[in-house]
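Q: I have 282 residues here and want to know how they pack in 3D. Can you give me a structure?
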Amino acid sequence: MKLLRFGSKGNESPGLLDDDGVIRDLSAHVGDIDGAALDPRVLDSLRALDTATLPAIDASTRLGPPVAEVGKVIAVGLNYRDHAEEAGHPIPAEPILFMKATSSISGPNDDVIIPRNSIKTDYEVELGIVIGRQARYVEEVAALDYVAGYCVVNDVSERAFQSEGTGQWTKGKSADTFCPFGPWLVTADEVPDPQSLRVWLDLDGEHRQDGSTSTMIFGVAHLVAYISQFMTLHPGDLIPTGTPPGVGLGMKPPAYLRPGNQVNLGIDGLGAMTHQFVACAD
């Protein structure tokens, strides 16, 4: 299934995308697409629905973040060898973790706000893991059983906030709108191999990033198991898994985002998103 949320910001309703690309309303069957709805039994009940009987929603309707009330966003840094090299960092011996504030979450096609005093805002297309079952001290061999599904994430970053001054990654990753994800949550049963997905991003029509999850240093199962050793993962938690090379930081000279830039990004089989970057208005 492709689960989504549609409607105005803060007033989204649960839905799904049917096999014909039509948005269908799930409001009569589930309160929202949140941690409770990601329980395997609930997902099975939604799969059993006759989607043709569900109300159709106009295709122009705004899509919100596909998961509501995300408890935490635990991101992985430098998880592609070529990206680590372009950023001037050594290849990590184990996953590098950092948090993105949940207040940075936004819809898949919403504008992204370049924050006040920003000089180095950058893009990062990433595979997102959404947890479906509580995971604590999980073994890698069983880790995929705890995954509800996958989505596209733009781990938007402000490199000066991230690496200069006190150099805190969370500070450079958590501005409002810096975590758009979607466009829908593709349930894990429709992604037989999360390590064979093409990942891409275009900036103003110029192809910037093109990679494959097959080249991740630490795969999905390893990441879920690893993170669960340090904190309990709850249904609805989001894990962006790192980006392939081609970010603005890696350009020679570096090329960062400005108001008016448009980014298109996606992962084959998971959908695509479009953001317009705009100046901070306050």
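Q: Anything worth noting?
A: The mean pLDDT is 96. The chain is about 10% helix and 30% strand.
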